[in-house]
Amino acid sequence: MERRSVLEAGALTGGAAVVGNVFIGKAAMAWFRGLTAPRWQLPLPAFLVVGALYYGIVGYVLARSLDRRDARSTAWSLAVLVGNEAWNGIFFGRRSARAGFVSLGAYIVPLVALQRSVAGDAHSRNALAPYTAYVLVYDLPWTYQLWRLNPTRSSADGVASTKVVCDGPVTSEP
Question: What is the CATH number of domain 3-149?
Answer without folding.
Answer: 1.20.1260
